[in-house]
Amino acid sequence: MRIAVVVFDGFDELDAIGPLEVLRNAATMGGVDLEVDLVALGGAAEVTGSHGLRIRPDGPLDPQRTDLLVIPGGGWNDRAPQGARAEAERGELPAAIAAAAEAGAVVATVCTGAMLATAAGLTRGRPAVTHHGAIEDLRAAGAQVVEARVVDDGDLVTAGGVTSGIDMALWLVERHFGAELAEAVAAEIEHPRHGEVRRS
């Protein structure tokens, strides 16, 4: 299974790094066929998060070679010049997200990453959640807003604000590789799983 965690200038660091750590722990602890990469559109050599963290992605996002695409948020609620809102308006990342979904990838969003999935045309008429500050934007775009920490609608999985991305990633480990591995990873990172996973 090929998992891509996509980052962009202005992304919220914990939205991406929390799930990345969960998924990479699953890859090393579980003896499962799992490849987890941190990627950027166009193969950017360096990306700067909303809190100033500078990282070097592993490589470019390839929508055709991604089984699970994890999308962080960042910068939506405060209309930052860089971040999810800016990427939604630019359009290139939503187009890549749509291409990955079209190719069969599961799309998983954290926080206002849901608004990038919305810009990609993936949330209309579907159950979803995002950060509380963007709930009305998500609803106005036609999603069926669900009050839950994680919402699993098959090929679209959404999580609420920031730290819920860790619970979402643990749920994805459980969904794809079993509860035993998910619990082992949760214990390794000392994260008590909490909040409801609402399945459609």
First CA to last CA: what distance? 23 Å
**What is the CATH first-level class name?**
Alpha Beta
Which stretches are low in confidence, meaning pLDDT under 50 for 5 or more residues running? none
Number of helix segments? Answer: 7
CATH architectural name? 3-Layer(aba) Sandwich
Query: Could you tell me the mean pLDDT?
Result: 97
- CATH fold annotation: Rossmann fold
Query: What's the domain count?
Result: 1
Could you provide a short overview of the structure?
The protein is an alpha/beta fold and 200 residues long. It is built from 7 helices and 12 strands.
Summarize the structure in words.
The chain is α/β, with parallel strands linked by helices and 200 residues long. The protein has a single domain, classed as Rossmann fold, CATH 3.40.50. Helices cover 36% and strands 20% of the residues. It has seven helices and twelve strands. The protein has helices at residues 13-29, 84-90, 92-102, 113-119, 135-140, 164-177, 179-188, and strands spanning 2-7, 35-40, 47-48, 54-55, 59-60, 68-71, 106-110, 127-128, 144-145, 150-152, 156-159, 197-199. The strands form three sheets. An eight-stranded mixed β-sheet has the order 5-2-1-6-7-11-10-12, sandwiched between helices. Strands 3-4 form a two-stranded antiparallel ribbon. Strand 10 and strand 11 (156-159) form a beta hairpin. Helix 1 (13-29) runs parallel beside helix 6 (164-177), helix 2 runs parallel beside helix 4 (113-119) and helix 6 (164-177) runs antiparallel to helix 7 (179-188). The model has no long low-confidence stretch (mean pLDDT 97).
